[in-house]
Automatic annotation (TrEMBL):
Protein name as annotated: Aldehyde dehydrogenase family protein
Aldehyde dehydrogenase domain ranges (all copies): 18-479
InterPro entries listed in its UniProt record: Ald_DH/histidinol_DH, Ald_DH_C, Ald_DH_CS_CYS, Ald_DH_CS_GLU, Ald_DH_N, Aldehyde_DH_dom, Aldehyde_DH_Superfamily
Family in the record: Belongs to the aldehyde dehydrogenase family.
One Pfam assignment: Aldedh
Source organism: Saccharopolyspora terrae
BP terms from Gene Ontology: gamma-aminobutyric acid catabolic process
Catalytic machinery residues: E252
Transmembrane helix among keywords: no
GO molecular function, one term: succinate-semialdehyde dehydrogenase (NAD+) activity
Superkingdom per UniProt: Bacteria
Amino acid sequence: MNFPLLPGKPAIFVAGQWISASGTRPVLNPATAEVVTEVAEAGPEEGEDALLAAHRTQRSWARRSSVERGEVLRAVADAIRENQEELARIVVTEQGKTIGEARGEIGGAATWFDYYATYDRRSSGTVLPSERPNEQLLIRDEPCGVVTAITPWNFPAALFARKVAPAIMAGNAVVLKPHEDTPLSALALAGICAGAGVPDGVVNVITGSGPTLGDALVRSPRSDLVTVTGSTRAGKEILAAAAATVTPVSLELGGKAPFIVLDDADLDRAVTDAAAARLWNCGQVCTCNERTYVHREIYDEFVSRLVEEMSRVVPADPMSETSRLGPKVSEAEWRKVRDYLDRAVAAGGEIACGGGRPDGAEFERGHWFEPTVVTGLGNDAEIVRDEVFGPVLPVIPVDDYEQAVDLANDTDYGLTAYVYTGALSTAMRAVDDLSFGEVYVNRVGPEQLHAFHGGWNLSGMGGDDGEHGYRRYLRHKTVYLGHD
Ligand SMILES: NC(=O)C1=CN([C@@H]2O[C@H](COP(=O)(O)OP(=O)(O)OC[C@H]3O[C@@H](n4cnc5c(N)ncnc54)[C@H](OP(=O)(O)O)[C@@H]3O)[C@@H](O)[C@H]2O)C=CC1
Ligand SMILES: O=C(O)[C@@H](O)[C@@H]1OC[C@H](O)[C@H]1O
């Protein structure tokens, strides 16, 4: 491994310094299952030190003008772009997505910093008249203080940017804990931030386990806001832990996106998009197509074309320029998907293509999974209800629009839904009827960063991006400004 952006030893990044921690832990390459390097395994005490470092520097960072902070964010965006290739290779090495996807992720990370830099000259707060003469009421937007950011493994660079850019633009300092499987991108980005002029202590990255280090960060009275992307299980635990200190929490959690194809849809587009929305990042995106509902009139043709489309996507070395599908991130995630599929078959599901590890010596090591289509199951099947987070797609026939929407809404999740139809009136009806935080009509993602990405129900609370996401990083102070 030759990544100059990473520290030469296992270390966390606190107060602008690379510091050794009490333990170390290996990072594995998902394509080969080989150890790539060791990273620091920090515990609660080191977490508290990081929060203290953030706390000490936050006030002076917030005192800078927003125009100055915006300049720093722009410098970070430029530095990310200058290092795009190395960063993309780090993402591929620790996470397993294809190099093309990884370059897109790094481009997105830079754009988050550029976008939130535009908040440098926005109007901020509200000015109100008073009931009294010679008095003005001001409702000021202020930073929360120290933000604890907890991130998952599926977008280790983009999600760093999604949390850090708005947090520091608003004048907060951040302690970010990446997922243990994918700590390298965040460490590299921490160094990039420092090199681009982010003051020491404003962005800290500390590596370690969620239930120990992460839990301690959440419970610490020094955390003024906790923002999380990850599983619903982790989100619930974190929300419960934060209750002790009444710390605000923003949760972007799992999803179970329905993908509805009605009989007046453009079938070519629906087939291509259904496969793309399932296979993106090897099926490991909270917005992925997790269950497809197809009008009975076109069901057989749709399934046969979907099988063709999915079968064309052959897993290959994610560093290869032509690869369209990398491995899953870890043995545990591979096993989880394999077990879901086995139980689906035991429950009567039929595998229309794929089914597990592809044939070939190059796939014997690593966490490879073929694109897989499953038919013959109903809405009660486990694989149709739980988030699978892999390249396995159940397809279900529906009689009409009403049934499609009823089945789509019959879920505990509520992040993303897709609908394909040729009629604007049906599309608009679906937008009204679908109980999800974001609805895509005749198109797939990714979402745009000036919009809003937030789930309903078990998919979370709060959310990221755009103005609505930015406001999570602010709190409000009302000033009664007498000037007699
Ligand atoms: N919404 C989304 O975008 C994502 C959803 N998922 C879903 O989650 C499933 C499993 O993911 P998994 O690998 O377990 O990771 P999680 O999604 O549960 O972990 C996300 C982050 O939370 C941390 N964490 C976990 N538990 C706690 C806790 N009690 N207190 C504080 N921090 C905690 C993790 O630390 P640690 O390093 O120890 O894991 C990690 O940094 C996937 O199969 C998928 O279904 C996964 C990724 C993203
Ligand atoms: O974590 C996820 O899966 C999503 O938030 C994901 O992150 C970057 C992508 O654009 C999102 O869909």
